[in-house]
Design a protein that fits this description.
Blueprint: H1 2-8, E1 11-14, E2 17-21, H2 25-39, H3 45-52, H4 54-65, H5 74-80
Antiparallel strand pairs: 1-2
Length: 81
């Protein structure tokens, strides 16, 4: 994957380590739109409601108390829910 990216976007090295990459203006504009949207997005109402819900807080406390070992068959447990 790295080699593919290096072919499309040349790397600038500093002391032998990747420092930056070169993109054309069209690619830069697309990246800027994506980053602006991520940085300036409004909080989603659903998330605010969940975070302030007492029921959600109780559920999180319950989950945190459970065994933290990974499930041996998480798909089966998910379908059982």
């Amino acid at each position: 994957m790295t080699n593919l990216l290096e072919k499309e976007f040349p790397l600038i090295l500093e002391k032998g380590r990747p420092k930056a990459f070169v993109v054309d203006v069209k690619v830069f504009q697309g990246l800027r739109i994506i980053l602006d949207n991520l940085l300036n997005r409004e909080p989603e109402l659903e998330n605010v409601l969940l975070e302030t819900s007492k029921a959600f807080q109780r559920l999180m406390s319950s989950v945190e108390k459970e065994d933290s070992k990974p499930s041996s068959d998480w798909r089966k447990e998910l379908y059982e829910l």
